[in-house]
Amino acid sequence: MTVWIAETLIATTLLMALVMLLRRPVARWLGAGAAYLLWVLPLARMVLPTLPSDVDPSPLHVAVDQVGLPDMLGGGAPVATVATAGSAIPWLEMLIALWFAGMVVFLIVQAAGYARFRRHMLAGATLIGEEGRIRLITSPHASGPLAFGVVRPYIVLPADFALRYDAQEQDMAIAHERAHHERGDLTANMIALLLLAIHWCNPVAWIAYRAYRADQESACDARVLSLYGREQAHAYGRAILKAAGGRQFAGACHLTRINALKGRLKMLSNHDVSLQRISWGMAAVALVTATGLALTASGSRAAQQMAAITDRVESADFAKLSGLVSQPAVAAGPTVADVPAVPAAPPAPAVDPWPAPVAPSAPMVPAADMIAPVPPVPPVTVRQEKDHVTVTHADGRVETRRIPTDADIARMVPVVDVRTGCEGGDTTTRSESVDTDGRRHIRVRICTRAIEQAARRAADRAAAQADRAARTADRDMANADRAARMAHVAALSSLRTARAQIARNMSMPADARAEALRDIDQSIAEIRAEQD
Q1: 11 — phi, psi (to 5°)?
Q2: Which of 302, 316, 350, 315 is nearest to 2 (CA)?
Q3: 415 close to 428: Cβ distance less than 8 angstroms
Q4: How many domains does the chain have?
Q5: Which of 11, 122, 206, 498 is a plausible cystine mate for 296, CB 3.0–4.6 Å?
Q6: Closest Cα partner for 246 from 345, 173, 157, 144?
Q7: Is 240 within 8 Å of 145 (Cβ atoms)?
Q8: What are phi and psi of 284, to 5 degrees?
Q9: Residue 359, in any domain of the structure
């Protein structure tokens, strides 16, 4: 069992590193969705059972054998040999307890953080609509759109969503969050956190989790752009930048790291992937998954050792950890069978590698769990009396704190007097004073007369400006009228002069001269009509 767990943790770590190496080329050539699907490889290896006995061992299986990992974990020697050569310190129990405690603490911290985040987002939230099971709400605590909730899905929008985003950006931002719910990304995130809890002490797993979240966002971006078209990439890029600015909970949906934002914005210009390339991408992901599982599978030796080692792991006595803390450390002594003072005592079982040391002449000391628990001494004692509170600390220090009375509270609240009245030439005046009891008095006077005078002066200035503008307009109209009359007089003078010259010109044919004089007379009549 121990060897299988070790091989599984090593294999999943190697596969995480492999996915981090392949994710960028796969996203560039086959699309962000194919890169996101690569992350199923570590999860599939985590739940992969051992190979049957008639299957050849994998390369990882052979490498683990060569480095001697089974011997280090106690799988290479018989259980009886390990029991007789064991150390007095329960290393196996300590390591298992440390790993399990770290995993439990990680899961508790994640659950508490999500509960706090959900409570924070729903405080003061307003329901604005529903799309099937998904509820759309606005929250004053959200700085950008985000999705949360698996059983009760939510899409939360900031209070200023309609002001910061235009109509196209709003539709695309909501479509992004809706895609998270429809694709099951939030459930996948819970599974990824569970895998990260198992690898809580593995730095490669933490780096891989951040890369997984970045690929998830890029795949969701690609899906939104496939719905709205590549020509809307610039609008969607603006929505991403607005959503990423000033977020308080980065892990909820969008990633605010600069590198992640650069990758997402770069993806917007290269998201069109043909159907043929998508098919090749799915085939490549399946091939990589099958190859990775085959190269890292646990072989038949791990299956054979699981039966023998499981007995030892399941028989681990975790009470030795408490005994290790409560009893003084002693050197490893002889087993019970070697103590001459107790010849009738049976020898210790061969499966227990850490027999408890027994001193021949010392009296029996009761176990730690047989001692009655001692109630803890409170470090601080608080005693409330009529007008004060006494605090007694564990070191004997005593502090007395006075409880404010109604009069003290009344002195803390200032008396505000707001009335109409004029004091000086200002529209409003404010003064503050403190009486003999220490209470503040704030006096505010609003001068309505000064406000009315200021309003009248503003109205008079506006009327004077309007009058000046009207006079200027009248003067401009008069000047234009004079200019028009002068133009008419000049035109009449020119037409009369031309008519006289044509009438005197006897060299012109009579018909042409008559027609020209008729046209000039008609023009002169029209100008006179305009003057009238």
Answers
A1: -65, -45
A2: 302
A3: no
A4: 2
A5: 11
A6: 144
A7: no
A8: -65, -40
A9: no
**Token code pair at residue 61:** 């299986």
- pLDDT single digits (tens) 254-266: 444 445 555 666 6
Final residue of a structural domain among 274, 302, 330: 302
Q: What is the dihedral of CA 415, 420, 424, 430, to 10 degrees?
A: 20
> Which residue reads 């009396």 in tokens?
385
Q: Which structure tokens are listed for 453?
A: 């005078």
The pLDDT tens digits for 371-426 are 444 444 455 677 777 777 787 876 777 888 777 777 777 777 888 888 887 776 67
Q: Is residue 321 part of a domain?
A: no
Q: Residue 279, Cβ neighbours under 10 Å: how many?
A: 11
Do 141 and 131 contact (CB within 8 A), yes or no?
Answer: no
* pLDDT at residue 15 in the model: 86
Q: Which of 260, 255, 257, 251 lies closest to 117 in space, CA to CA? A: 251
- 522 within domain boundaries: yes
Q: Which helix (H) or strand (E) holds 389?
A: strand 388-393
Structure tokens, 435: 């009486």
Phi then psi dihedrals of residue 400, to 5 deg: -115, 125
Residue 84 within any structural domain of the chain: yes
- pLDDT for the residue numbered 174: 92
Q: Residue 461 sits in which domain range? A: 449-531
Where is the domain boundary, 244, 275, 302?
A: 302
Which tops the pLDDT comparison, 255 or 177?
177
Which uninterrupted H or E stretch holds 96? helix 91-122
